[in-house]
């Protein structure tokens, strides 16, 4: 439901300066998750510092970088399509990102690409650009932008705190593509956050593959027991909204909840539970603690009643029986999660789950997905209806003639719903934080008026 220009996979560089004579120019297509979007921003910032111009379209670019996603077969197909489009529109294409971990897969379909590099291989991408389009910097003109190149609206930014993952979930190949957990130094993360806030960012979206594991890869004698807690406290002092994504449900997550109740970070947790039946979770190589998770959720809500919980689930996982799926539905009824996404299981090249017995027929997956989403939608609709009459803070994302598109503290960009103000919005601008009274609710969105 969000405006198309807020979609990470449709992002283009937001740079408007005029191209100087002789300046080499690069285009960027960024696909996939916010973590890949951060990689794109870093690549463009480095190129901009070397004197390259950034083109928002194919025709104005001397070459195009396509940052790919390779997590699911459908994402791989989308990446190949994007590479093909860039080749057709521009002809000079450099490929990077997760799908770049399989260079033969790319060159087998598109042999004319100039180079293929893997995820977060910044130096290799720069080398490929230098080879294809040699730099021609002007030391009197080309300077590194103070806040770097951003592919998101100016009022929010993704803050990536680590790379990789130490889990061995059978359905996931992220550790194979992005490696083991490698956390950024806390001072570097906080300094980046400070610069973003100084540049006008009102919302920091903390991302990684495993946010709650942040810092646990550091030597034990050189860190606090759970560094994510110290990081959250520091970020909470900067005066911006701080939203936590991809939080694995370790026991120490309960220590984050008081920070949310105090208002240091947003009362929002994005936790990928994936399933609820212990046998399914065991086949996934996930923690087998569905019932204890319900107790944990109840304890979180007791400390922070305004807590919003978002999660994703997989239906049709190999071996999933009708009884296991029913357990998931019953668990969802009890958990009453606020924001829910669901995927039908599909094989991913290299994933260990491919070899499991009992693959579920596609028509059964589709039926279970529809039943799951119907229940999740009903829960969402009831929870939003309960907000009618409440006064809440919202952040403005976009202002058009007929309405302002906003988000509440319970809504992350792109993946959650919106709140629309359709009267008295003319003086608003993106990044404003205002108070509204909710006067209407739908299945996923709210409408309100300024107070």
UniProtKB/TrEMBL annotation:
Reaction(s) this enzyme catalyzes, per UniProt: L-aspartate(89)-[ribosomal protein uS12]-hydrogen + (sulfur carrier)-SH + AH2 + 2 S-adenosyl-L-methionine = 3-methylsulfanyl-L-aspartate(89)-[ribosomal protein uS12]-hydrogen + (sulfur carrier)-H + 5'-deoxyadenosine + L-methionine + A + S-adenosyl-L-homocysteine + 2 H(+)
Family: Belongs to the methylthiotransferase family. RimO subfamily.
Superkingdom of this protein's organism: Bacteria
Gene source species: Tranquillimonas alkanivorans
Chain sites annotated for binding [4Fe-4S] cluster 2: 165, 169, 172
Subcellular localization(s) per the UniProt record: Cytoplasm
Free-text remark on how the cofactor is bound: Binds 2 [4Fe-4S] clusters. One cluster is coordinated with 3 cysteines and an exchangeable S-adenosyl-L-methionine.
Cofactor: [4Fe-4S] cluster
One Pfam family it belongs to: TRAM_2
NCBIfam families, per the entry: 30S ribosomal protein S12 methylthiotransferase RimO, MiaB/RimO family radical SAM methylthiotransferase
Keywords: 4Fe-4S, Cytoplasm, Iron, Iron-sulfur, Metal-binding, Ribonucleoprotein, Ribosomal protein, S-adenosyl-L-methionine, Transferase
EC number: 2.8.4.4
Signal peptide: none
Listed name of the protein: Ribosomal protein uS12 methylthiotransferase RimO
Domain Radical SAM core: 151-382
Example GO molecular function: metal ion binding
EC top class named in words: transferase
Chief location of this protein within or outside the cell: cytoplasm
Residue sites binding [4Fe-4S] cluster 1 per the record: 33, 69, 98
């Amino acid at each position: 439901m969000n405006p198309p220009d807020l979609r990470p996979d449709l992002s283009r560089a937001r740079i408007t300066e005029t191209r100087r004579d002789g300046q080499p120019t690069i285009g960027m297509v960024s696909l996939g998750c916010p973590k890949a979007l951060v990689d794109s921003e870093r690549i463009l910032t480095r190129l901009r510092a070397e004197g390259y111009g950034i083109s928002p379209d194919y025709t104005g670019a001397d070459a195009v970088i396509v940052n790919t996603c390779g997590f699911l077969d459908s994402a791989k197909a989308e990446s190949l399509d994007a590479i093909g489009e860039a080749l057709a529109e521009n002809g000079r294409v450099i490929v990077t990102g997760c799908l770049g971990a399989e260079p033969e897969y790319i060159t087998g379909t598109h042999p004319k690409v100039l180079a293929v590099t893997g995820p977060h291989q910044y130096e290799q991408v720069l080398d490929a650009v230098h080879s294809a389009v040699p730099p021609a910097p002007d030391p009197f003109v080309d300077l590194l932008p103070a806040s770097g190149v951003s592919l998101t609206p100016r009022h929010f930014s993704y803050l990536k705190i680590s790379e990789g993952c130490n889990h061995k979930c059978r359905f996931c190949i992220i550790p194979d593509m992005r490696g083991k957990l490698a956390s950024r130094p806390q001072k570097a993360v906080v300094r980046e956050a400070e610069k973003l806030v100084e540049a006008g960012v009102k919302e920091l979206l903390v991302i990684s593959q495993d946010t709650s594991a942040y810092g646990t890869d550091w030597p034990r004698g050189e860190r606090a027991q759970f560094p994510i807690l110290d990081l959250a406290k520091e970020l909470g002092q900067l005066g911006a909204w701080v939203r936590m994504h991809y939080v694995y449900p370790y026991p120490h997550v309960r220590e984050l909840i008081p920070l949310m109740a105090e208002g240091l970070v947003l009362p929002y947790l994005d936790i990928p539970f994936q399933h609820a039946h212990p046998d399914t979770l065991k086949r996934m190589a996930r923690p087998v603690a569905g019932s204890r998770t319900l107790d944990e959720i109840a304890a979180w809500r007791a400390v922070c009643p305004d807590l919003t919980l978002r999660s994703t689930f997989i239906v049709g996982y190999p071996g999933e029986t009708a009884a296991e799926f029913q357990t998931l539905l019953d668990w969802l009824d009890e958990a009453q999660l606020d924001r829910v996404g669901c995927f039908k299981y599909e094989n991913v090249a290299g994933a260990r789950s491919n070899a499991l017995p009992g693959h579920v027929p596609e028509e059964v997956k589709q039926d279970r997905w529809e039943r799951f989403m119907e229940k999740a939608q009903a829960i969402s609709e009831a929870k939003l209806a309960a907000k009618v009459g409440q006064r809440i803070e919202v952040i403005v994302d976009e202002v058009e003639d007929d309405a302002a598109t906003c988000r509440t503290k319970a809504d992350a960009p792109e993946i959650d719903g919106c709140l629309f103000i359709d009267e008295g919005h003319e003086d608003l601008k993106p990044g404003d934080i205002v108070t509204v009274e909710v006067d209407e609710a739908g299945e996923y969105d709210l409408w309100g008026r300024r107070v």
